[in-house]
């Protein structure tokens, strides 16, 4: 995320093309920077909560997990009922597996988000494609 903020500045400098291209690039840069800031605030809030609450999920992350869990069950995943408090060993394993699956899902979602931001920047500022790729995941860093 932080790397994106660094190359946002680079992408806006020395454009090839006219004033319209510069304005479009600047507008997209501002929009993407706002999205990145909001996303980074969410991630930071989740991390800070976990650090101060014995690695528990933040309330926002718990809501995302519950929504994700219900969607997976509706799709046929064999997870125990979310409201069940007394679980067999097999059900406890399934519940733990669901948490691991959710965290993997969240990671994939972050990667998709990063790629979407990068694609938007490249589309808006094509003269800076090499710089954007060099300073972003997966080619950069």
Quick recap of the structure?
The chain has one domain (2-134).
Structure report:
- There is one protein chain.
- The chain is built from 5 helices and no strands.
- It has 141 residues and is mainly alpha-helical.
- The chain is elongated and about 65 Å long.
Structure characteristics:
141 residues; mainly alpha; 5 helices
Q: Topology, please?
A:
Elements lengths: L1 H11 L6 H34 L6 H16 L14 H36 L4 H6 L7
Whole-number mean pLDDT: 85
Number of domains: 1
Helical content stands at over 70%
Strand runs, count: 0
Order of helices and strands: HHHHH
Determine the structural class based on helices, strands and strand pairing.
Answer: mainly alpha
Shape: elongated
Work out the helix count.
5
Low-pLDDT residue intervals, each spanning 5 or more residues: none
Gap from first CA to last CA: 11 Å
Portion of residues in beta strands equals under 5%
Main beta-sheet annotation? none
Radius of gyration: 20 Å
């Amino acid at each position: 995320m932080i790397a994106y903020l660094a190359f946002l500045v680079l992408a806006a400098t020395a454009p090839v093309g006219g004033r319209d291209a510069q304005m479009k690039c600047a507008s997209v840069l501002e929009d993407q920077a706002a999205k990145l800031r909001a996303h980074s605030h969410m991630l930071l809030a989740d991390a800070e909560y976990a650090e101060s609450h014995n690695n528990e999920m933040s309330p926002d992350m718990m809501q995302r997990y519950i929504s994700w869990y219900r969607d997976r069950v509706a799709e046929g995943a064999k997870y125990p009922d979310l409201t069940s408090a007394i679980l067999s060993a097999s059900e406890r394993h399934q519940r733990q597996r669901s948490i691991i699956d959710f965290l993997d899902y969240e990671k994939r979602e972050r990667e998709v988000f990063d790629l979407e931001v990068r694609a938007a920047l490249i589309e808006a500022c094509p003269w800076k494609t090499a710089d954007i790729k060099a300073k972003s995941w997966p080619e950069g860093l």
